[in-house]
């Protein structure tokens, strides 16, 4: 029997439903589990976490919109992730994690051998969380398990066990490629320009990240300039979402110069809901379109081979799999991405 999907949204979960979910996870019959906005007691949440710890078929876990609502649940999820080895996409959008909660999750995230997509949008994060997230985007693509503050998250008592687990995880990283390929940090206004500058440096040197969603953060032109440098330096970043981030024509001109003068992997740049003229948006869109066409002609069979190996950004979790490159309303371009989450969802629904 092929693994299927369980998708429940915004409903209270009964004891029978929780039992069915746990049974499916233990039987490795679930590939996609989405409990977006569901309401359940702490005891049932713990039962699900214990079941997903040993699940080997589960590839996508969606706990968006407040399911992980307390420090105790964060600890239970972290413990499950320390054991699980199959989850590739983890969505926690709209969870009140805060920096302290992410610090509890970070060791498990850093050691997970398969995780490539992480959604931490609207999670009340600040600069301390950015330090930890940068540890998931190291230059060699192998996650470090440390923040950028110089101190380890591991305690002295468990260091030997952690080292053994890290070795096993690093062996698995050789198989899975290691490091995040999609990162979503939408709507975290507590992050300061200092935090965003650290993230820009990490993205510039990351050998993995392909999709970066920073929409609805008060970035402004200064941070956008740093991100332009990061994009110009990155060999892999294909999608950058800057919708509603307080940008002006100054940012757009910098981004236009970057796209026009430096060869990058960038294919989609979302600039909607900013104070940017339609003309500048259209110029950027046209240049990205030209670059993609040239890559398709030059790449030929090699590009097809690369996508067949699974080189694809994960799904955008905020309502659409379409990436719109803003332009004049009469001439708008839509770029489609076949993300990890989208492909899993399509496969399980079929």
TrEMBL record:
Start-end of Low complexity biased regions: 320-330
InterPro entries documented for this protein: LRR-containing_regulator, LRR_dom_sf
Q: Which organism is it from?
A: Pongo abelii (Sumatran orangutan)
Q: Where is the composition biased (Basic and acidic residues)?
A: 306-315
Q: Which residues form the signal peptide?
A: none
Q: Which gene encodes it?
A: LRRC73
Task: Cite the entry's keywords alphabetically.
Answer: Repeat
Region (Disordered) residue ranges read 294-330
Q: What is this protein called?
A: Leucine rich repeat containing 73
Q: Which PANTHER family match?
A: LEUCINE-RICH REPEAT-CONTAINING PROTEIN 34 (PTHR24111), LEUCINE-RICH REPEAT-CONTAINING PROTEIN 73 (PTHR24111:SF3)
């Amino acid at each position: 029997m092929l693994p299927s999907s369980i998708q429940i949204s915004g409903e209270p979960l009964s004891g029978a439903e929780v039992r069915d979910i746990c049974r499916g996870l233990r039987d490795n019959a679930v590939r996609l589990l989405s409990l977006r906005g569901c309401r359940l007691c702490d005891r049932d949440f713990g039962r699900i976490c214990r079941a997903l710890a040993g699940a080997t078929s589960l590839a996508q876990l969606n706990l968006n919109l407040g399911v992980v609502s307390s420090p105790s649940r964060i600890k239970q999820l972290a413990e499950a992730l320390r054991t699980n080895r199959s989850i590739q996409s983890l969505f926690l959008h709209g969870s009140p994690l805060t920096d302290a909660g992410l610090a509890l999750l970070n060791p498990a995230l850093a050691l997970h051998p398969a995780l490539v997509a992480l959604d931490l949008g609207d999670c009340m994060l600040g600069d301390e969380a950015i330090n930890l997230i940068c540890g998931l985007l190291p230059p060699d693509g192998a996650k470090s398990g440390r923040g950028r503050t110089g101190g380890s998250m591991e305690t002295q008592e468990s260091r030997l066990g952690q080292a053994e687990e890290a070795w096993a995880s690093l062996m698995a990283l050789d198989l899975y490629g290691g490091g995040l390929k999609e990162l979503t940090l939408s709507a975290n206004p507590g992050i300061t320009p200092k935090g965003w500058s650290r993230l820009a440096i990490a993205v510039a040197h990351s050998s993995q990240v392909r999709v970066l969603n920073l929409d609805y953060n008060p970035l402004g032109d200064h941070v956008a300039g740093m991100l332009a440098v990061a994009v110009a330096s990155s060999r892999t970043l294909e999608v950058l979402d800057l919708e509603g981030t307080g940008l002006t024509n100054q940012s757009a001109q910098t981004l236009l110069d970057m796209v026009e003068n430096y060869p990058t992997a960038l294919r989609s740049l979302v600039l909607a809901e900013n104070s940017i003229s339609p003309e500048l948006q259209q110029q950027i869109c046209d240049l990205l379109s030209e670059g993609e066409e040239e890559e398709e002609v030059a790449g030929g069979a090699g590009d097809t081979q690369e996508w067949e190996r699974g080189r694809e950004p994960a799904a955008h979790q905020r309502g659409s799999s379409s990436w719109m490159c803003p332009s004049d309303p009469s001439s708008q371009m839509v770029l489609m991405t076949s993300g990890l989450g989208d492909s899993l969802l399509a496969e399980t629904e079929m």
